[in-house]
Amino acid sequence: MAMGLPASKRHNRNFIDPLCFGGDGKFRILHLTDIHEVDPDMDDNEDKTIPQRKSEETMNVIEQCIERTHPDLIVFGGDNISGYWQEFTYDYMYKTIKRITAPAAERNIPLAIVFGNHDAECEYMLPFLMKENQIGIYAEYGNFRNTFNDEDISGCGNCSLPVLSSDGSRVAWNIWCMDSNDYVRDDRYNVIEGAGYGFVQPDQIKWYEKQAAELKKSNGGQAVPSVLFQHIPVHQEYNVLKEVSEGTDGAVERNGKYYTAPDGVFSDGEMHEAPCPPDSHGEEFESWKKTGDIVAAFFGHDHTNTFTAEVDGIKLVQTPSAGYHSYGKKRGGRLIVLDENIPDSIESEIIFIEPLYGEVTCK
Fold first, then answer.
1. What is the rounded distance in angstroms from the CA atom of residue 158 to the CA atom of residue 146?
2. 0.90 cut: is pTM over it?
């Protein structure tokens, strides 16, 4: 685990403006998740060549979402690259990250990321895929906002991004970037088969609570309203679903059980696949409730889900996949608008982008 930024990039922070609300009192965030990009020249054992059109379609989604939303911040929501391809080399990884960050860099838009379960999946075979190496490449972009970690805790990229009021006098909102890790692992970092997806670890939760308390103290004892981004959703999404029998119209299946969404439970979007959170571990959500700052949490991971559900006053929001190198049909992102004068609500809009070449076959 590492803190801060690479020494060669720390000077960037001396020349970077803080995130700040505009004169209209709004702050616009573009959430792009599950980009799953690979360098289009990379060989693949399955297809022999990565279809160029998949990369072209993916980059068109990123470009068009930016053009339509005019964001003040872009957040990549994990599985930003397809790190399960064993054919990756360092050069391919480097070019892939540079490729997906180019639309932000060309416009000098602030960029933040979280990691998913696939970004570094083949690290055990390809050590250069480690997340600290990847975030070092992102950090070559001068308007990149993450650190390795704000403290020496589990994961990579855990950080807090304050957004100042339009007059710069106070922190009006805060943005949390959390690494939800990849899979449940043993003490030797080996994946435990059948143990499910990763989750935010206790030391990360402790760091979040400490940071949130410091923000609250500086805000006159009031919790600073916050949004949070991580890749893998929390298990509490199932709190709004109804378990039904097999064969029920519209039901989705997970672990041998079937679920539907009751009418009106989603304020927007749809559920097309069963949510895939960790098998248990509700501690993170309970921490959000106790701390009282999280207005909404945004997830990727489940490519075809686009719903917003509210659980115990916290919005749990799924953003559709942006990338064409993995499963799904419709691709896009989500625009999130914060208002410095309305600390307990957000505006959110799903953005779908039509493909350039019609339907693109994806596994």
1. 8
2. yes
